[in-house]
Specification:
149 residues; eight-stranded mixed beta sheet; 34% strand; globular
Length: 149
């Protein structure tokens, strides 16, 4: 069964979808990465929410922002795939879909991400280029990366 990609504004998310999204983000960014931080940052309301459903469960997710809502140009953030689905390469599909959705919804070509440093090669495989020195965000090494599509 293939993954089903859905993009919705915050207000259009069902309670079940929102719960699954927040649970997935918490599972990975708080529990798996052992990082206590404030995930609910009042930016979800501005974002488009891109998620992949597999057998009715959200197993991949990212937030998409238009220029000015997070960075100067459009951006992709909170990129996450459930641990037991990572071997299926859904993360690559998620990034490709995110780029497509930014072009379709925002008509923008420049995208910025704040990438965890250990994922540099993953993002480079999609054309992103490192544009900053390493910095700590919630005590995790990050770099800024950009792409023009």
């Amino acid at each position: 069964m293939p993954i089903k990609w859905v993009t919705k504004k915050f207000e259009a998310l069902s309670v079940v979808e929102l719960y699954q999204i927040l649970r997935l983000r918490s599972e990975i960014f708080v529990v798996e990465q052992n990082c206590v931080y404030q995930d609910l940052d009042n930016k979800d309301q501005k974002a488009l929410h891109l998620f992949g459903q597999f057998e009715g469960i959200i197993i991949a997710y990212s937030r998409l922002f238009k220029a000015g809502d997070y960075f100067d140009c459009s951006s992709i953030g909170r990129v996450v795939v459930a641990a037991n689905y990572r071997d299926k390469k859904f993360g690559h599909d998620l990034i490709k879909q995110g780029i497509t959705e930014i072009k379709n919804h925002f008509n923008e070509k420049n995208i910025t991400i704040s990438a965890q440093l250990y994922l540099k090669k993953f993002y480079e495989s999609h054309g992103f280029i490192q544009t900053s020195e390493m910095y700590l965000e919630d005590d995790i090494p990050h770099i800024e990366m950009k792409i023009t599509v």
